[in-house]
């Protein structure tokens, strides 16, 4: 019987035409939800550390910071500028560096000068708010000894020097 059935020509023409309704389905909400699942949030603000002892020379500073969260971070944006007591201190040149680590050594700075630092974290979703600002100070330049004014006797010596720094130096240490 199957063989006979397969040999017959079957007419599949429908007597009435189907009536389909055209519908437009809006997947924008679903697409937005799917995209939010796959994206990472923008990072939280990093926390900049206060200046560590021995983290400065006359022309360089080592700045460190960290995160209190498990944010995904691609790099950091470290900004700094010299601190000035003048009224127009906001107009001073701001410098920005992109850094992969949670520390950076900044060079070519002025001796015995205060610098203000702040840092932001970046990832594919965006940039974090900036950290609090921290002030770091470079070490003073070594003083110049006035060799023509040196005096000495059996129990004492007089050594004179002058500072090459614009800002006042807190103290000097004389080594014999």
TrEMBL record:
Pfam families: fn3. Residues 46-142 form the Fibronectin type-III domain. Transmembrane segments: none annotated. It comes from the Eukaryota. SMART domains: FN3. PANTHER family: E3 UBIQUITIN-PROTEIN LIGASE TRIM36-RELATED, FIBRONECTIN TYPE III AND SPRY DOMAIN-CONTAINING PROTEIN 2. This is Fibronectin type III and SPRY domain-containing protein 2.
């Amino acid at each position: 019987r199957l063989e006979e059935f397969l040999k017959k020509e079957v007419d599949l023409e429908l007597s009435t035409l189907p009536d389909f309704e055209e519908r437009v389905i809006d997947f924008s909400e679903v697409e937005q939800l799917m995209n939010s699942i796959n994206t990472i949030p923008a990072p939280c603000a990093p926390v900049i550390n206060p200046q560590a002892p021995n983290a400065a020379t006359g022309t360089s500073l080592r700045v460190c910071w960290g995160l209190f969260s498990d944010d995904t971070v691609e790099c950091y944006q470290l900004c700094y500028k010299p601190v000035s007591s003048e009224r127009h201190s906001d107009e001073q040149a701001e410098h920005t560096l992109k850094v992969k680590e949670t520390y950076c050594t900044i060079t070519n700075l002025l001796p015995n000068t205060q610098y203000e630092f702040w840092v932001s974290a970046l990832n594919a979703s965006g940039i974090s708010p900036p950290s609090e600002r921290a002030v770091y100070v470079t070490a003073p330049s070594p003083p110049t000894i006035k060799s023509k004014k040196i005096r000495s006797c059996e129990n004492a010596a007089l050594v004179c020097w002058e500072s090459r720094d614009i800002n006042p130096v807190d103290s000097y240490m004389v080594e014999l």
